[in-house]
Amino acid sequence: MPLARIDVDASTSQEVRRKLSDIVYDAMATIAKVPVHDKFMIVSTHAPGDLVYPKEGYLGIEYTPGIVFIQITWNAGRTTDVKKAFYRKIADDIHEKTGIRKQDVFINLVDVSPENWSFGNGEMQYAPK
Amino acid sequence: MPLARIDVDASTSQEVRRKLSDIVYDAMATIAKVPVHDKFMIVSTHAPGDLVYPKEGYLGIEYTPGIVFIQITWNAGRTTDVKKAFYRKIADDIHEKTGIRKQDVFINLVDVSPENWSFGNGEMQYAPK
Amino acid sequence: MPLARIDVDASTSQEVRRKLSDIVYDAMATIAKVPVHDKFMIVSTHAPGDLVYPKEGYLGIEYTPGIVFIQITWNAGRTTDVKKAFYRKIADDIHEKTGIRKQDVFINLVDVSPENWSFGNGEMQYAPK
User: Fold this and answer.
1) Is the ipTM of this complex over 0.95?
2) Which partner from A107, C57, C83, C126 sits 20 to 30 angstroms from A78, CA to CA?
C-alpha cells in the first residue's frame, strides 16, 4: 500500500537507486509492518539545482547536492514510535549500504485511508468489509 | 480540482500518455462528478528500473515494466462506492484504449480540503462562503 | 517542513526554476510563518504535452504550455486567510519576477502531521514533547 517517491540527483547510479528502493521497502516491512511484497515506488532523477535545500542548513543539519527526498503515501495509523524507528532505520541503512550521508536523507509521510488504493485490475483491494 | 500525477516508463509514447490523461479525466467527470474542464495532470517518464513493483506480485496480481502509477489529489468526500467505480472505469478504459494490462494500473488517492487549491491568478476559487 | 514540488515545462531555464523556488520559499516564510531556512523543494521538468491543462480553461481562467504546478505538503493548521494570502503572494511574485502569467500558476496544498517529517539524520525533529 505505500507508494514511495524517491527523488535523487541525476548523477545517482542505477545501482544506488535500486538499493534505495530496497532499503525503503525493507524498513516498511520490518518496522512499519507493511505486508510482504507491498513494494511500489517511483524513482525520479533531477538536474543539478533542481533538488532544493537550505544552503545554511536547517535545525543544525547540513545538506549536500546528494540529498535524497523520500515521500511515502500510506495508510494512516502508524504510531509516533513506529515512525521514529522507521526514519532511523532508513537513514542508518542508506548510510551503511550506499555511503550517502545520514544528514542527506529527507523523509515525509502522507497518511490516507485504506479505500484510497487500487493495486491493479481496477479493484479496491482494501475495501471495507 | 483534482491534480493527477501519472508516472510511466520512458518508452511510453506521447500518444499513449495523452490517452492516459484523457481517460483519467473522463473517469473523473463521469464517475466522480468532477466539474467539466477540471483537467490538471502531470505526466512523468522514468528510466527502466525506476518504476518499482514487486517481482513476486502482490495480492495475486502480477506486474510488468509497463506499470502505470496514477496518484490523484482531490477534495475529500467521495464514497467508497464511487471510488470503486472510479478504479474500475480507469482500468477498463486504459486496457481498452491503449492495450495496457489492467493489472498494471496502480491508483492512489489523496484527500484534501477545498481551500487547498488555487487554479491560477493567485485566487482561492473554492473558498468557503 | 514544507516539501514543495514544482513541475514546469522542459523549456523553463535553470534561472527561472531557481527563481520559482526562491519565490515559493519567500511566501512560505513571510506569509505562512514557516521557520527560516526551511526550504526543501523538488523541481521537475516535463516534455511538451506532459503538463496537462484544459484547453477550454477552467473557472474563467485560460492556461498556456507555460503552466507551473506547485504542490506543497506541509503541516495542517494554516487558516483560510493565510492560504489566500499565500496564493496571492506566490502568483504576484512569480509574475513580477519571471514574467510568467498569473493565470498559469496552479497551487495545491496537502496537510500532514508534525510527526510525519524527518529532516535528515534519521530523526523526527518535530516529535511531540
Assistant:
1) yes
2) C83
